[in-house]
Design a protein that fits this description.
By secondary structure, the chain is an alpha/beta fold. The chain is built from 5 helices and 5 strands, in the order ββαβαβααβα. β3 (37-48), α2 (50-65) and β4 form a beta-alpha-beta unit.
Length: 129
Amino acid sequence: MEPVEACVVVAVAGELDVTSSQQFDECLSEASSSSDRTILDLSGVDFMDTSALAVIVGHWRRQVEVDGMFLLAGARYRYTKALWITGLADRLPMYDSVDEALTAARADRGGDAAKGGANGSAGPDATAG
């Protein structure tokens, strides 16, 4: 977890699954307690299951409810395809890199980027990694 400007960047690596979901949830809770703008860097993730998706969606919803931001960065389709299979890649605000997410956070003080739909990622082909 690293503060960058008005955001907190949480970089995760390895496997996000049922065995790590509680620790993952606690990490995101800690991040959201220090800032209402969270960027989740998924570029180091090698596997993600639906338990990790539930944690991500829960935190995204909580941030949006309080007019905060919860942005995803660096999700590689090959390793995080559950985002696309479930349709969440079209709903969650996703960016190809942390830098792009930071740019979006700077430009969008009103929080519209955190609500989804304005997807900064070009989709599975661009993130095949």
